[in-house]
Amino acid sequence: xxxxxxxxxxxxxxxxxxxxxxxxxxxxxxxxxxxxxxxxxxxxxxxxxxxxxxxxxxxxxxxxxxxxxxxxxxxxxxxxxxxxxxxxxxxxxxxxxxxxxxxxxxxxxxxxxxxxxxxxxxxxxxxxxxxxxxxxxxxxxxxxxxxxxxxxxxxxxxxxxxxxxxxxxxxxxxxxxxxxxxxxxxxxxxxxxxxxxxxxxxxxxxxxxxxxxxxxxxxxxxxxxxxxxxxxxxxxxxxxxxxxxxxxxxxxxxxxxxxxxxxxxxxxxxxxxxxxxxxxxxxxxxxxxxxxxxxxxxxxxxxxxxxxxxxxxxxxxxxxxxxxxxxxxxxxxxxxxxxxxxxxxxxxxxxxxxxxxxxxxxxxxxxxxxxxxxxxxxxxxxxxxxxxxxx
Amino acid sequence: xxxxxxxxxxxxxxxxxxxxxxxxxxxxxxxxxxxxxxxxxxxxxxxxxxxxxxxxxxxxxxxxxxxxxxxxxxxxxxxxxxxxxxxxxxxxxxxxxxxxxxxxxxxxxxxxxxxxxxxxxxxxxxxxxxxxxxxxxxxxxxxxxxxxxxxxxxxxxxxxxxxxxxxxxxxxxxxxxxxxxxxxxxxxxxxxxxxxxxxxxxxxxxxxxxxxxxxxxxxxxxxxxxxxxxxxxxxxxxxxxxxxxxxxxxxxxxxxxxxxxxxxxxxxxxxxxxxxxxxxxxxxxxxxxxxxxxxxxxxxxxx
Lengths: 391, 303
Known about the structure:
Oligomer: heterodimer
Number of helices of chain B: 10
Structural class of chain A: mainly alpha
Order of helices and strands of chain B: HHHHHHHHHHEE
Distance between the termini of chain A: 46 Å
Shape of chain A: extended
CATH architecture of the domain at 125-288 in chain B: Orthogonal Bundle
Number of strands of chain B: 2
Helix content of chain A: over 70%
Radius of gyration of chain B: 29 Å
Strand content of chain B: under 5%
Largest sheet of chain B: 2 strands, antiparallel
Radius of gyration of chain A: 31 Å
Distance between the termini of chain B: 39 Å
Order of helices and strands of chain A: HHHHHHHHHHHHHHHH
């Protein structure tokens, strides 16, 4: 089965399993407490009904009024500050629900507002997150140089560690602030920050809902807005670092498959090869014949390498990143592997023998990729021309 | 200024203006109605307080009990069906809040559950969305061939149109279904589907909350879960088609800048090399720096 399809199926199965497991655990943790809580509340309700001599209908009427007053209890929700808060919850998809448009026109505007706002916000957070990652990478590089370390390259592990700790500290700072300002326990404030910054936004805990804070405490209001937006940026930067590459995996595989297919259907020398010919324009037919056989070898080599990469995806991604850093831009992108392999084949044949399982991904053979990358360092324009000028 | 920085700054500015404009419009649309509703409700409340002779404390007590009992009004929320519903709202980040973990252990597990579940779900929806787009592209291609078009290539516009219509279709199907089962107006059901499938999830409208639906109406429960997951896939496919490329723009630009820097260094090294042939190759079509020296794809050997 095609790799992308296998990957997609595996992901679907994992998600469904994850949901079932989660449901079972939540049921175990919450069901009993729910039952006892409901019983206590019902008992209390009947007590109150007896105390004030209320019929069921009366109590239900009372219930309705109380529930409808709930959003108003927290203060005015739709003045400018409240509307700004609401707009943030819409375009970041947090969606607490502490305030929701009650008019139909409000609902309609909300939908159009979200339609444009959500992609804009996604792109903005990823853009800013990438800038932050680049800046952090630069800082780490300088820090490594200052500390006199031997290898000043900033590895992925470094970046992930820094990112993870930034996320954790952002949550802790928020937890401390909100537990102080809202009177929640530290755990509940941490839970609130987590649910907010992952954009889940249950609405069981919502900031700025006490004592009409939206109207009375502009500094706290500003702090909340800044915290939410900056926190989302930090989380977005971490996602940009860790998750974004996986979102494009299928697309990249399709692109690579299309290239492979195109190469398969072409029997004659490809454009990239002929591009090198202009210099040796005084070619004899032998050069053309050479290039024809070279093209066949090229196709074969390319297929080999692609076959290798098809199975060993981890190496594909690692080698791709290494290559993009180290290849001299002399070589057009499409030709990298074919040319490199050609070079390798002419200098040191590294034939890749698929093992019994069909997978070439064993430690012994996997050194081929690293030798390709080192081979590229050898592959300077000097060698390139040396080959051509041997005509 | 570097392109990525300009892009990022303008995006930040756009977002802030967008928020300001949105806030102003929501204020204009909702503030009046909020005030009048509040007045009516407060009037009703004082009427009731007088009628039943509640003191302020009595009322507070009743209010507390009613608010705490609110989630229970919709039936048992934490049996398996309800927990599954909750788990969906966590990992898809919809987060209605119709049910939220009451125990501290539940809250802690919820956080760990989300940390792993949300990226997994993101990757899954994008993966499946990409597969769907590829399949749709294939179908459109075949259709164009069957209909005897001259150009059987499927353009981006075709895909975007089909994607957009699928999203609208999904929302309408959901709106029809939920307006029937939940007794909402078509408009409110549409609004519910939209808020759900964009993962905003206010919780003002929540399906499966009519008395004991979660326990009793199993086919409807299954339909709701399927609808949410399939709907999110359709939206995810559309996002994969239209938005995903923009999320990697800065990264691609950084990569291209790094390549340019590397090539510049190498060329400088070659030109100043003490021995060996001095060769300068200019390959990159998008290498604007070399444009003023020679057209791209030209080589010359310095003797």
